[in-house]
Design brief:
This protein is of the alpha+beta class. It is 25% helix and 42% strand. This is Outer membrane lipoprotein carrier protein LolA.
Length: 194
């Protein structure tokens, strides 16, 4: 069994058994544009296999989790963000979607979860996040075969817990359960791409 799936199951089980409530941690990130030749060679090679390289923009992202490289592109009328570690190993692929495009049962569970976490909220951005090995992720992009990958949902909201609205990024599993809640700390010069 893939260690990621095992860890995800352990986390879900632990939260269920011990009744851990999610508390918002903070998320800060600094993103800046780089040229293709500054990205890891393995990352560039992956992008060339899965996407048209003409419209790929490369970025470095520094956050509370460390430094990563990100390729952003449009492919088959969808916006993708592909994240790599500093060696060029793929971490995940995110595809921007509308909230309305999600299955009704999943939407209902996500709304229920948001209602339990916030007094008021507005969904600003939804991304499907895929994790898995390189070959399966390439097949997923090409719509040829869908197996051995995990699917999560990253949702950015403007939410109110008490008196003020703040920005949050929430990671949901495929069942609509909130796994991680991060308050987004923005500097005045930050631009959140929605």
């Amino acid at each position: 069994m893939n260690s990621y799936f095992f860890k995800l199951k352990i986390l879900s089980f632990s939260m269920f058994c011990f009744g851990i409530t999610l508390q918002a941690q903070t998320k800060f990130e600094r993103e800046y544009r780089i040229k293709k030749h500054e990205a890891p060679k393995a990352a560039v090679a992956f992008i060339s296999k899965g996407f048209s390289e003409k419209k790929v923009k490369w970025y470095v992202e520094e956050s509370q989790d460390g430094k990563t490289f990100e390729a952003k592109t449009n492919y088959k009328k969808n916006k993708y963000s592909i994240e790599f570690d500093t060696l060029g190993n793929i971490l995940d692929i995110e595809k921007k979607v509308s909230f309305q495009s999600l299955q009704n049962v999943l939407k209902s569970k996500i709304i229920s979860s948001l209602n339990s976490l916030f007094v008021k909220h507005k969904i600003l951005k939804v991304q499907i996040q895929w994790k898995g090995d390189q070959e399966n992720l390439l097949k997923l992009i090409k719509d040829t075969k869908k197996e051995n990958y995990s699917e999560l949902y990253e949702i950015v909201i403007k939410g109110k817990k008490q008196r003020t609205f703040k920005m949050y990024e929430i990671l949901f599993d495929s069942e609509g359960k909130a796994l991680k809640v991060l308050e987004i700390i923005q500097r005045p010069s930050d631009n959140l791409e929605l």
